[in-house]
Amino acid sequence: MTPLPASLRDSSVVAWRNLLNIKRNPDWLLSGTVQPIMFVLLFAFVFGGSLGGGRYREFLIAGIFVQTVAFNTSFTVIGLTNDLQKGIVDRFRALPMSRVAVLLGRTSSDLAVSLLSVVIMSLCGLLVGWRLRGDLSDVLTGYLLLLLFSFAMSWVGAFIGLISRTVEVAQSAGLLWLFPVTFISSAFVSAEAMPTPLRVFAQWNPITVNADVLRELFGNPIRVGMPPPDSWPAEHAVPYAVVSSLVIIAVFVPLSVARYRRVGSR
């Protein structure tokens, strides 16, 4: 069998094994399912009344989508570190399988978890007043771009998982950087209302751009109580969202594979 089909076959086996682990430990899904619902309800009903009511809820959901798939990198970080700590990865390395299979299997299974989270968030959003007002092709494009971003972020999680020596370290390292990156964005509030240094960072933040792309494609408000964004990323939102996700993948796939090759020396 040629290398590419063999790698895909091995990766699918590892991905299926990871999904079976989730089935046996359903509490792992709590952060990917309950947490998005909590954020939707909290921001929609606690803050929504003072930030624009129904329009804010429609603005909010895209930000919750992007935040959730970004936070789902914690599955990759903790899952990979847990396998390393228990010696399971060493067993995989002793088998005649592709070197990339463990990493691609992990990121693929976590992409499936993100897909489930997106479905749950969509249903929850519909219940609080969010609506899909774009064309069917635009809506599908929006969901595909969201999953591409999720896949890219999972490779960041894979690298962090490979450099984390314990699960406890992984739990902190997997989320510590995500909070500032997520909240210094237009996921929940308009970036244009931030101080200049934070505004510039937020405007170029892939989380901002992916959230704005979803709002545009879903036919939801781009901003609430603020003028539309006029930065370069906002004016080229779709290509910037695609390129930023591909750049993240192009950077962190080689880093993760290189680190995986040295994992035996940990």
From TrEMBL:
InterPro entries assigned: ABC2_TM, ABC2_TM_bact-type, ABC_2_transport, Nod_factor_ABC_transporter
ABC transmembrane type-2 domain span: 27-263
GO biological process annotation, one example: response to antibiotic
Keywords: Antibiotic resistance, Cell membrane, Membrane, Transmembrane, Transmembrane helix, Transport
Subcellular location: Cell membrane; Membrane
Source species, domain of life: Bacteria
Any one GO molecular-function label of the UniProt entry: ABC-type transporter activity
Bilayer-spanning residue ranges: 28-47, 59-80, 101-128, 140-163, 175-194, 237-258
Membrane topology: Multi-pass membrane protein
Keyword Transmembrane helix: yes
GO CC terms in record: ATP-binding cassette (ABC) transporter complex
Pfam families: ABC2_membrane
Stated family: Belongs to the ABC-2 integral membrane protein family.
Protein name: Transport permease protein
Species whose genome carries this gene: Actinopolyspora erythraea
